[in-house]
Write a structure and sequence with these properties.
Length: 292
């Protein structure tokens, strides 16, 4: 049986639990918490209680393992620990999809209710319906996740159409997708989409991962691809004059040669992939101007 972990975030030197979550790799998850809070802060995005707690304490945090449990019961174990700790920065009671509901009805009961009460026959119709209408508390918005190990067959089975098409493929969860992608060492969103278009990635992964996983655990492209890269907003690039000297030293005499080099060589992170954007209003005229 696959195992996973329920972990808690603490301040270094203080064993008071301030946040509880689930992860197959808590050490990497801690790095993701820190990375994304810094990114959201730099982008001026709205921060949650956990983000503000991390910032207030200068990210001087660590994690502890509260429990190692079977993967198929992590929701109830996470909810148990959140319920039994006070002073947390969590904004939900935990469980499936980070919400407050534990879906106790069986897959067959939920399927029968949907087929009898809703005139929904496709995934697109379902997504429109849940966007514009409330569901009963016992119906999950994303039953493919809620019943993944509890009877889920396919969207065609769920709607009673039994149609099979790419739209009804059950996508991997965010963590499963990350585990599949990590050994592939994909370095950019451009490379990911190119591989997807060429059919070199399984269709259990979404083409537009940031959209699909937006409310299903998405953190960032760097986290999704596990490539360790830092977003442009947090990277330190060469000055424009240093950049011009560098490209001449490398012998990159055309912009296409430069683009190929930066996509294939990730050792020098001070070279931007899109210099025209990075050096806009900082001296940029054209790439030909850089190599004069």
């Amino acid at each position: 049986m696959k195992k996973t972990f329920i972990y808690g975030l603490i301040l270094k030197g203080d064993d008071t639990i301030r946040y509880i979550g689930k992860s197959d790799n808590p050490k990497k998850r801690l790095r993701s918490h820190i990375y994304n809070t810094k990114l959201f802060q730099a982008q001026g995005k709205r921060l949650n209680h956990k983000d503000n707690w991390l910032i207030k304490n200068d990210f001087n945090v660590d994690y502890v393992i509260l429990e190692e449990c079977d993967f198929n019961i992590w929701q109830e174990r996470e909810m148990y620990h959140i319920k039994n700790h006070s002073g947390l920065t969590n904004t939900s009671e935990g469980g499936i999809g980070g919400g407050t509901i534990k879906y106790t009805k069986s897959y067959d009961e939920v399927k029968q209710w949907v087929q009898f009460n809703l005139r929904v026959k496709s995934l697109n119709q379902w997504l429109r319906y849940i966007k514009n209408n409330d569901l009963p508390d016992f119906i999950a918005k994303y039953p493919c996740q809620a019943y993944k190990n509890r009877g889920w067959v396919s969207w065609g089975d769920f709607f009673g159409t039994n149609r099979v098409s790419d739209n009804y493929v059950v996508r991997l969860s965010y963590d499963e997708a990350k585990r599949l992608l990590e050994p592939l060492n994909i370095r950019s969103t451009t490379e990911y989409r190119k591989l997807y278009k060429e059919g070199k990635l399984p269709n259990t992964l979404p083409k537009r991962a940031d959209r699909y996983y937006g409310n299903r655990g998405w953190l960032s492209w760097a986290d999704y691809l596990s490539n360790g890269l830092v977003a442009n907003q947090l990277r330190e690039f060469y000055t424009y004059e240093e950049f011009k000297t560098k490209v001449i030293e490398l012998g990159l005499m055309t912009f296409s040669a430069y683009k190929k080099y930066t996509l294939e060589n990730k050792t020098d992170l001070k070279l931007p992939t899109n210099p025209n954007t990075v050096y806009k209003n900082r001296g940029w005229v054209s790439y030909q101007d850089c190599i004069k």
